[in-house]
TrEMBL record:
Swiss-Prot/TrEMBL keywords: Cell membrane, Membrane, Transmembrane, Transmembrane helix, Transport
Similarity field: Belongs to the drug/metabolite transporter (DMT) superfamily. Small multidrug resistance (SMR) (TC 2.A.7.1) family. Gdx/SugE subfamily.
Cellular location(s): Cell membrane
Alphabetized SUPFAM superfamilies for the sequence: Multidrug resistance efflux transporter EmrE
Originating organism: Maricaulis virginensis
PANTHER family in the cross-refs: GUANIDINIUM EXPORTER, SMR FAMILY PROTON-DEPENDENT DRUG EFFLUX TRANSPORTER SUGE
Residues annotated as transmembrane: 33-50, 57-78, 84-102
Protein name, as recorded: Guanidinium exporter
Length: 105
């Protein structure tokens, strides 16, 4: 159950990152409310997951899910540019997450 909570916290991190972009510096109400709600829920789920998952595992995986998800959303839906350097960086993030998970098996 802890891994499910951690994954959900990571997905909510993606949601609040997108909402942060859409809120235009808290100048738009609905995205601002989504951002704050998603942040609170994400932090709560991360905290709950860390009851059984070590900090050194949970936090990097949480931020990695958020970083990877925000990158994908930015490229696919927001028209952000992609190049080989960015792809290499994303590959390193994914490999790092896999290694962290494997190191705790």
């Amino acid at each position: 159950m802890s891994w499910f909570m951690l994954a959900a916290a990571g997905v909510l991190e993606i949601v609040w990152a997108i909402a942060m972009k859409q809120s235009l510096g808290f100048s738009r109400l609905t995205p601002s409310l989504i951002k704050v709600s998603a942040m609170l829920a994400s932090f709560w789920l991360l905290s709950a997951a860390m009851r059984t998952i070590p900090l050194g595992t949970a936090y990097p995986i949480w931020t990695g899910i958020g970083a990877l998800g925000a990158f994908i959303v930015g490229v696919i839906f927001l028209g952000e540019t992609i190049n080989m350097t960015k792809l290499a960086a994303v590959l390193f993030i994914v490999l790092g997450l896999i290694l962290i998970k494997l190191s705790n098996s």
